[in-house]
Amino acid sequence: MAPTTLATMAALDSLSLFTGLGLSEHKARETLKNTALSAQLREAATQAQQTLGSTIDKATGTLLYGLASRLRDPRRLSFLVSYVANKKIHTELQLSAALEYVRSHPLDPINTEDFEQECGVGVMVTPEQIEEAVEAAINRHRPQLLEERYRFNMGLLMGEGSLKRNTPVSALTLVSAQVLHLLGPKTETDLEKKPKVSKARPEEKDRRTTKDMMENGERLAALSLMEQLRGEALKFHKPGENYKTPGYVTTPHTMDLLKHLSSGLIPLFPFPLSQVRTRFPPEPNGILHIGHAKAINFNFGYAKANDGICFLRFDDTNPEKEEAKFFTAIYDMVAWLGYTPYKVTYASDYFDQLYAWAVELIHRGQAYVCHQRGEELKGHNSLPSPWRDRPIEESLLLFEAMRKGKFAEGEATLRMKLVMEDGKMDPVAYRVKYTPHHRTGDTWCIYPTYDYTHCLCDSIEHITHSLYWLCNALDVYCPVQWEYGRLNLHYAVVSKRKILQLVAAGAVRDWDDPRLFTLTALRRRGFPPEAINNFCARVGVTVAQTTMEPHLLEACVRDVLNDTAPRAMAVLEPLQVIITNFPTTKSLDIQVPNFPADETKGFHQVPFGPMVFIERTDFKEEAEPGYKRLAWGQPVGLRHTGYVIELQNVVKGPSGCVESLEVTCRRADAGEKPKAFIHWVSQPLTCEIRLYERLFQHKNPEDPAEVPGGFLSDLNPASLQVVEAALVDCSVASAKPFDKFQFERLGYFSVDPDSCQRQLVFNRTVTLKEDPGKV
Prior knowledge:
The chain folds into five domains: about 10-120, Glutaminyl-tRNA synthetase, non-specific RNA binding region part 1, domain 1 (Helicase, Ruva Protein, domain 3), CATH 1.10.8; about 125-185, Arc Repressor Mutant, subunit A; about 350-460, Glutamyl-tRNA Synthetase, Domain 3 (Glutamyl-tRNA Synthetase, domain 3, Alpha-Beta Complex); about 490-565 and about 690-765, Orthogonal Bundle (Glutamyl-tRNA Synthetase, domain 2), CATH 1.10.1160; about 570-680, CATH 2.40.240.10. Strand 16 (about 635-640) and strand 17 (about 645-650) form a beta hairpin. The radius of gyration is 35 Å and the shape is extended. It is an alpha/beta fold. It has 27 helices and 24 strands. It has a seven-stranded mixed beta sheet with strand order 10-22-23-24-20-21-11, with helices on one face. The protein has a six-stranded mixed beta sheet with strand order 15-12-18-17-16-19, with no helix packed on it. A four-stranded antiparallel beta sheet has the order 4-5-6-7.
């Protein structure tokens, strides 16, 4: 018989078997598409038939399907099928308890008595016990029941206490009766359908999400990332209980390795098994960006929240791209955000051990030397290597030859025999590179890859929360890797390669150009580290990738700077004003509060003389309706002076441009209160002020659909405006780089490192909050 006919018959047999379990034909056909699930379900059904005969009732079939689809350890299949087939496990809650038990007890033999007690096998629940359990469950949820009424999830009442694993129909009836007694009959409000939530367009959804976060800012700001991590945001495994994590693969050596850690038999970095250990492992080939801030906060914050430790580990496995300045900059940024590593380590610290493990991997038949070129290995559909099954001894000799420099770059690699989660087959573990390493010099000419190194370094450092097939393949301690979503921002690119293109094209000055979202750029622009940490806390720890609007980050910056940046006055477009009746022959000293809302934080002194400078935009010869600042017949107050000025004369140059104003002054309390008070400077310092806008014009500059010409074609020509002769009051004369101020009515500004003794340079960090009533 032809192979195709045999396969067809087998599929029909499986289809008949699955529909016999109670699955619909459509569900059965969908199950057949999943090779692993269909094989496990077929085996479960076949074993059950040995007890029940060819006919299996639908309730049992449903349990068998749930068992096959949720069981991660096939070794336990026969054990659990026997309980289902013999009706010892007969409810979904019992099955869930059974699956949880075998997952958290991976080693043989299973304690049958303990298992049956945990799953409620053979437990007979009396009507009195059911009534007591129902009353207790309702009392625990009483406030929420009264608030939500019949919209409350009644399933919660069935999942508690003695009802958790045995749920007879009488219990369901009793729950309904007691809920009716508590709430009374359903009202019209209870019967109303929940309004449908219309699906918003992506950009509208972004706006709503950001708006919701802004509105909840005060609550979220009070809830730090560490507090989130202490609570219910992430339910991680306890240190030493790695095997309880869904999807964690156990081996016969797993528990022994964990015992060795607990007893301190593994000497490197000895620590108590209960201690949380995390790591932040950047590659030192570029500058950290805003997405890394989330990773830093998560790894250091989670360790700190649980009295653990966090390593800063440099993944220095590619000497071609690593530079000393990146090591320094990364460490500085971690410290700037407020974190101190327990220990700074390097992947290169472990090169000898990593090499020894690579040799061991070859001995175990799990790795081989390959001669496919780099271009042949690209993508996820590359051809299988013709050298995959070469003899172990041959690979050992060739790997040693790689180590001794007998191959040119690209002529040979060591590859691991596995398919990664993203579908990539046989990733490279070692490649030949003749570039000297910044720490090991010319000792090595082969270097491990990130795919190979990352998990093994986690194992060496005993990280508790971090492809870990490799650890199990080598029988070394296997940490748990928890995935969390990447944080991105609209109107930005953070790729190292693309930032280098921006620098090469002259679009930005360097990695720390304040228009970028690298951490060094944000620091230079004046973003406080507390604001970045608060932003990460507001975004939260999410599994899905998150892309936020920049103004949410800017709102966090304003929240911090409003309380920490002292006030000063500066004028971007100066217009000279002569006060013709100045009340004294010399300047007055004006006391200006550093924080007007809290004068206990002190004052600074500025001079006030007969010549002042105001913003050119604060004067109009012909004021349109609604304009409240200086104009003919419309006086204006000068902030902090207690004086009001009124226009007397406009002095114009040959071209008709206004060059200066002549005004008179009076005490503010000596007449009608003016409609507005404006800022000013007198005897000022000349400074340079850099005003920044978004670097890109479109929300997603890397999206070909949105920007067909590529991100370099989307640059905003107005992203930087330099005001070379701005004026600022003399209170800032001693400011140092990164000192921050609020220039009244203009925004928040930070001193740039380009400043010198001759001239200060300020970067506008963010504008002030928009005020719809301001004109």
